[in-house]
Structure formats: structure tokens, C-alpha cells
Amino acid sequence: MRFILRRLGFYLIAFWASITLNFLLPRFMPGDPVSRMFARSQDRMQPEQLEALRKLLGVDNRPIWEQYAGYLQNVLTGQMGVSITRFPTPVTEVISSQIGWTLLLGGTALVIAAVVGNLLGILAAWRRGGAIDSALPPVLVFIGSFPYFWLAMGALYLFGVVLGWFPIRHAFTDGLEPAFTTEFIGDVGAHLVLPALTIVLVSIGGWMLGMRNTMIATNSEDYITMAEAKGLRPGRIMLRYAARNAMLPSVTSFGMGLGFVVGGALLTEVVFAYPGVGYQLLNAVQGLDYPLMQGLFLTITAAVLLANFLVDILYVRLDPRVRSN
Amino acid sequence: MTSVILQQPTEAKAARKTNRGFIHGLITNKKAMTGMAIMLVFIVMALAAPVLFPGDPSRITGMASLEPDGEHWLGTTAKGQDVLALTIYGARSSLLVGLTVGFASTFVGILVGLASAYFGKFIDEALSLLTNVFLLLPGLPLLVILAAFLPPGLGTVILVLTVTGWAGSARVLRSQALSIRSKDFVAAAVVSGERAGRIMFREILPNMASIVMGTLLACVIYGIGAQAGLEFLGLGDVSTVSWGNNLFWAGNEGALLTGSWWVFIPSGLCIALVAFALALINYAVDEVTNPRLRKIRKPANTERSAAQ
To answer: Which residues of A are less than 8 Å from B257 in CB distance?
Structure first.
């Protein structure tokens, strides 16, 4: 319990830090974001909107502490202002309409990569010097060396443009009405294959090597020898004795990976024009939509922190050493 | 005190011996040599770029979107620039930024990690908290936000990448420094009244050379990859020639949709090769310093695999 409370305190501090960063950035950066934005969209913006924006981004004459208190209050009550590029939709609404797609894409890719990668790692460590152990790691490391977006563009070109097997952009075919029909779900699935596949391809090597190296350490433990001496089946020793104890670092990576789900899919989403939060973040940056930018960053951070907190709770369940401390 | 004085030379001798073993291990390691050979080719390429292709690499030298032929070995872009010249010049900016970011974030990581481990208590708590917060903040979105608010330029790219990249190395270096901090020779140095800076940099740091090297390589890989990503999103300094910017322009000019694969392949391949080479060296360092990961010739294991 104390462990969980301490972690909770840490995540609250981290969240506070990101809010404060968000508050400070527009105020201490050279140039005035509101004027830059105003120059871009003169005809569309009303004077009172401009005033609200100035308040949000701190280009007003109140003392900085007062501004900070107001900003904190706004964020904590979920008031993140109104999007500029999608005027007059509130920022929170824009975000909630898109985070689902990001979770779908990132979640699918993460689960596939983690499960397959860990299994490969277990097998590689169990049969050291075997086919999986000697052939796969160099290949996966080499693939992992490619920039995400480059690999994604290559896959898009090969499978989307040249071969035409998969759709090349968006999360579902334009004009299709979102509904729980087999047609729509199939369409979403088809749009998901390429982006998810590219993420799996570049991230699987990390899972595999991490698991392999922990497994090698676990394999030399005495209880493995003991299990062998007892004459247990090798498959049982591998999964129930060795892999089970080598899982813990992977669980931590999974928490970190969940963070990647929300934030790291940005490049993939951009390449495939997938309508998630990462794609929206880039659009917001290009459109100088500061309220949306800040809202997205806070949402992404909050999601990452929450995911890590959940993994911490899981950790207490999995590792008795944490509980006894 | 005599034991302390006696102890130091032996410690130093041991360190030198392991160092020589380390370098020997790297030279005889196939992965390390492959990685270093690839890196050498790229560094020579970057240095020789003005000799190979005199003049501005982004000037227009031919028709638009030419396929690779005898005159333009890698074809031309949609603007008519020579792709080979752009790729070779791209190595300059990409390697420069990658190495600078790598060294800067490793340096910050060393400072924070050593200070954490050496001073302990409140300083450790505070620095660890800072490190963990930075580790947890989602990197790419933070990168994008920072790049959006700062004025564009090479300095911004380096600064932003260092800000988002130092935390990982700080955490690794701290835990290593902590274990060395508890060794007797550090306690001896403290007792003999050496200054904090000297203990941190002359006593502790040399004993974690291999970890520092691994961290540095990882940071350079991060720097090169993240710079390319940032530039691909159009958030870098668009006026310079680098691999990331080449890909940004390739995407912008629709190179793939028109089928000009030759514009798109070289820069990505270069990034991958450099990252792969650095990763190879990194694994080699790991193998040389961590005996558990070396090729095993233990009879117990061969018996097990034979039984299966």
C-alpha cells in the first residue's frame, strides 16, 4: 500500500510538472504566439476570442502567479479552450473523438509485438545458438535500425500503392458510416493492418532481445537445475519456471510501451493519415493551434502516467518483494 | 592508512588491465569490427563531401525525377537535384547532430547520475525525481511541442533532442555509479579527504567506462533517429541538407506516389546503416563486458539442447 501511495505521489508530481511545462512554454518562448496566430487567421477570429486566447497563453497583463492559478484551475476542471483549426469545437471534444483510434492502433500493435517478441525471446534463450537465436536477432536489430516513418512509407508504397493489397490512408473508407456491422469492422481491420504491422516490425526486436537476455540469466538459476533434476518436461520448465520469472522486466517495458501507444504512434499516424491524437498534434502544430496542441500534450501525458500507474499496481500483484518492502 | 595507500595502485593496475582486455575484446569481436568499418565509411563520406561534389548540393543539376543513370548515379528529385549529392551531404548534418546530441545527453546523464550516486540523500531524491519525470513524459509529443514553440534552426534541434534524451542515460549511469559508490576504494578516497569532483570524475567515472560507452552509443542512435523524425515532420531546419530533410522533401514532393523510389531509399538506408553499425558496436561492448552474453561452451547446456 505504501508503495502504491508513493508511486501515486510521483505520478501526481510528474503530471504537475507537465502542466507547468505547458504553462511556461508559451510564456517564455521568444515571440508572441497569439500575434503569430492572429496574423494567420485574421478574418476568422473575433476580438473576444483573441482575448480568451491571450488569457490561455498568458499574453495578458495579470501577474504570473495569478495566471498560473487560473491555468491550473482550468486544466483541472477540463477547460482547455477552443480549437482554432476546428473552430468552434472545444479542445476536449476534438481529443475525445480521436483518442479511440490511437488506442486501437497502438494497443493492437503493442499486444502483438509484446506477445510474439517475448515468445521468440523465450525460445531463443532456451535453445541458445539454435536457429531462432542466431538468425533472428541480427535481422530484427537491422530492421529496428530503420527510421519508423521510412519503413512505414516503404510498406505503404509496396503494399498500398504498387500491390494495392491494403488501403493507404485513414482509419476507414470515406463515406462509410461508423457502426457495429461486419462490413465496417472489416474495413477498419483492413485499414489497421499496415500501420500496426510496421510498428510491430520495428518494435519486436527490442522485446525479443530483452526477454532473451533476462531468460539467459534465469536459466542459470539453481531452481532450473532442480526442476531438470526432478525430471519435469522441458516445455514446462521453460514456461512455468524460467519464463515466468524472467517476465518482470517485460512487464515494466509493457508499461513504458503503453506510453508509446499514445505518444509514439505519432509518426505512423502521420504517414498513414490515421486520425489519432498524434496526427492531430502535428496538424495542430502546423496550424499554430496552441490550445489544441496543449490539450493534446496534456492528454497524452495523462494517459502515459495512468498506464504506468496501472502497471505499478499490477507489479504489486506479481512481485511479492515489492509487497514486503 | 597503509592499506589504503597500498590498495590504490593495485586498483589502478586492475583497471588498466581490464581496459586493455576490453579493447582487445572489441578488436577481436566481429560485430564491433563490422560496426566500426561501416561508421568509418560514413565519416569519410561526410568529410569528403565537398571534394566529391563541389558546390551547393541542393542546386538543380538536371531534369526532374530522372531515374538513376550514368550521370546521376542515384537519379534526381522532383526539383531536379542530384540525389547522390544530397545523400552524401546529408551525412554531414545528420552525423554532426547525432554525435552532438549523443555527447551532450551523455554528459548531462553523467553529471546527474554521478551527483545522484555520490551525494545521495536529498540530492539523489530530487535528481531521481527529475530523471523519472523526464523518462515518463512522452518523448515524441514533447519533442514536437518544444520544436513548435522554439524558433527553427540547428541549435533548436540539438537543444530539444538533448532535453528529451538525457534522462535514460542518467538512470542507467546512476545505478552503475551507486554500486561503485559503495566500493571500498571510494570510501578510502572520501576518508583521505579528496574533493567531491575528483572522486566523482577520477575515481568513480573511469570504473564505469564501458557503461558510459554503451550509453553514448545509444544516445547517438537516438539523436540520429529523432532528428530524422523531427525533420520528416517538417519541424527541423528545412533549409539544411540532412537525411531527415531529404525524406521530408521526398514526402512533400510525393516521390512515392509518383514512383520515384530512388529519391526515398538512399537517405533512409543511410540512417539505418549508421544506427545498425552503432547498435552492433553497442552489442559488442555488452558482450565483451558481460561474460554471460558471450558465446557459451558450457557442457550442461549442450546436453540440454541435445536432449531436446
So the answer is: 161
